[in-house]
Amino acid sequence: MAEDSTVVRFEDVSVSFGDTKALDHVSFEMRAGDSRVILGASGSGKTTLLKTALGLVKADSGRLYVFGEDVTNLKESGWFDIRAKMGVLFQEGGLFDSMTIAENVAYPLLNQRVLSRSLQNQDGNVDYKVREALRFVELEQTLDKYPSELSGGMRRRVGIARAIVTEPPLLLYDSPTAGLDPITANTIVNLILKERDLRNAASILVTHRPQDGHLMANFRYNPSSGQIEAAPQNGEQPVKTEFFVMKEGRLVFAGPQRELKASQDSYVKKFAK
Amino acid sequence: MFDFLKGPVQVFQDFIILSGRALGNVFRSPHYVDDILIQMDTIGVGSLLIVMFIGLFSGLIMGSQMARALATYGAQGQIGPIVSITLIRELGPVLVALLVAGRNASGIASELGSMKVTEQIDAMRALGTDPIQKLVTPRLIATAVTLPLLTIIADFIGLIGGYMVANLKFDIRFSQYFTPAWQILEYNDVVQGLVKPFSFAIIVALVGCFYGMRTTGGTEGVGRSVTKAVVVSSIWIFVVTFFIGQIFINL
Prior knowledge:
The complex is a heterodimer of chains A (273) and B (251).
Chain A: E1 6-17, E2 20-31, E3 35-40, H1 46-53, E4 61-66, E5 69-70, H2 76-83, E6 86-89, H3 101-111, H4 113-119, H5 123-136, H6 152-164, E7 170-174, H7 182-199, E8 202-206, H8 210-218, E9 219-222, E10 227-230, E11 241-247, E12 250-255, H9 257-262, H10 266-269
Parallel strand pairs in A: 3-8, 3-11, 6-7, 7-8
Antiparallel strand pairs in A: 1-2, 1-4, 4-5, 9-10, 11-12
Chain B: H1 3-26, H2 33-71, H3 79-117, H4 120-126, H5 131-170, H6 174-183, H7 187-213, H8 218-249
Helix pairs in contact in B: 1-5, 2-3, 2-5, 3-5, 3-6, 3-7, 3-8, 5-7, 7-8
């Protein structure tokens, strides 16, 4: 049985789509406040790993624990309450085209049973939370716009607002910086750092860019100055950031950044900046 | 040895699972009433004009073609009953269903397909909503309600079309046309004329949703899903109308 403090725990999890193995005996665990940076080529199983943790993809073998609960054989209806504690940013943003930005961000608040029950009879509360989340990503002025009216980077930021609006203890980011210019990409990672350090949320970041991992591991958000700054190098790191490198569904590397940099494996080296 | 059957059987099984869940959700809350109304507007009101148009023209065509054959027996007076029976039993339901398949099975498949490839369906599941409850069931209910209504309208306008031909070409009066057209109809015909569009509605909505929801391969995949949805639902409409017809003939 997994201990209660683990947020996610994979035990020998395998997933295949037809003949291709998307996840091949993957095992890891993370605790509250931990960060994981998952690197790897396209098609190496990074997105599948996130989707398995969310229960969107079912494991063929192995066991999966989320928030200390065994969810390996959980039915879809049981997953809804667990997903209420997770925030997710999809690769494509996953914003609903037919809804305004405000409706998109309010969606998890209104549709997740656990949350909507506690928010009942508090109409203003939903509105307040939506504004707060959009203020966090500095897009408060876009409330009544539709996703198609925003740029790619703005859509990604709205996706972050929708992921964090429920203040979940676990956040999953699927390639948040893919296809963005370096400046916008840094803005996005800064937002992820800010969310992680303000609320001590566990975060899994899937990315192609080694720089994103570097930021996650070595920088932190300073609430008093409101800036991102280099984390002090002496002593213990405030946030435990581990790096994973995936290849053809397998976790070929797991460890801190200095081990990643020291790795001699030619595939792993590609992802060590 | 029967490996080649694996694929189609798997697809059919997936379709049955989706259908079972969608139909089960009809009796389970939450009900997304707003979505049902929006879909009724798109499918029902949106198809109204074109359904009236094809209803009118099928009546006009049937009236004028039948009249020629009937004239050889001097039986032009039978235009009313012939138009009424063929339209209400068979042509009305099938033509309207084919039209709605072309218009809405494709629309549903492309909308759901685009949502699938842009991860909106995954997002919906991740954010606490069952996509079948939110997307499939409202479309199913909306089509099942509106398609029979559209068929009734098409039948009615088709009868008027037949009358226009009968009156202008053969000088048949209103009561001469409509009284036998009405009298020839039996309970069996009317029930058949309503059971069919109801069944077609279920086919059109579920096939459209099914292919939409299993779209893969980006925007190109959306195109493939749309084509499949229209082709498959059209084929099923013909197969099912034959079998329903057989059941009613033997009643």
